[in-house]
């Protein structure tokens, strides 16, 4: 199993456009940039979607992070982001050899979105392989990076 990666931002609103046309928008919720590796499986997608929906990164009445996306009736914007696997260790141009190709990434991206929707979350998406403009207002700001490899290590240690 590979490490699927997500950059999660708590937002007051977000939208994604292609060629100036808005194709997805959300209000209060989470914007997720999703990176899929060549050896990722549905297990990573299922685990990560569940983890993101359950993250307690929304404030309660005392300002503490006690509420999840579901608790605040939040929405999810999911955008595929192969550049999360850019390897910059050699030279100045990133290598994307670890990023999954379309034949692996597209079905896993769609599965990730399906799993979130099956958990009764409203999900908006980008367009796979399109040049997109993502606009958001980061609420907090709050930004979390999840990597399923880190999560596996934590479960093993814990």
Describe it for me?
By secondary structure, the protein is α/β, with parallel strands linked by helices. It has a single domain, classed as 3-Layer(bba) Sandwich (D-tyrosyl-trna(Tyr) Deacylase, Chain: A). It is 25% helix and 36% strand. It is built from 3 helices and 8 strands. The strands form 2 sheets. Strands 1, 2, 3, 6, 7 and 8 form a 6-stranded mixed beta sheet that branches. A two-stranded antiparallel sheet has the order 4-5. Strand 6, helix 2 and strand 7 (122-125) form a beta-alpha-beta unit. Helix 1 (42-54) packs parallel to helix 2.
Mean model confidence by pLDDT: 93
Question: How would a textbook summarize the main sheet?
Answer: 6 strands, mixed
- CATH class reads Alpha Beta
Helical percentage: 25-40%
Basic shape: globular
Count the E strands.
8
Residue fraction in strands: 35-45%
Helical/strand content category: alpha/beta
The total count of helices amounts to 3
Output the CATH homologous superfamily: D-tyrosyl-tRNA(Tyr) deacylase
């Amino acid at each position: 199993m590979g490490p699927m990666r997500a950059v999660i931002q708590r937002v007051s609103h977000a939208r994604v456009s292609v060629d100036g046309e808005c194709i997805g928008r959300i209000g209060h919720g989470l914007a997720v940039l999703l990176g899929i590796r060549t050896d990722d499986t549905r297990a990573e997608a299922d685990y990560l979607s569940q983890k993101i929906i359950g993250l307690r990164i929304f404030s309660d009445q005392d300002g503490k992070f006690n509420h999840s996306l579901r608790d605040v009736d939040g929405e999810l914007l999911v955008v595929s982001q192969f550049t999360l696997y850019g390897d910059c260790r050699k030279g100045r141009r990133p290598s994307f050899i670890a990023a999954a190709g379309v034949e692996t990434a597209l079905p896993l991206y769609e599965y990730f979105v399906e799993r979130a929707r099956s958990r009764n979350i409203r999900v908006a998406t980008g367009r796979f392989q399109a040049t997109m403009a993502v606009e958001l207002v980061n609420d907090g700001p709050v930004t979390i990076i999840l990597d399923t490899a880190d999560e596996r290590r934590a479960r093993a240690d814990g």
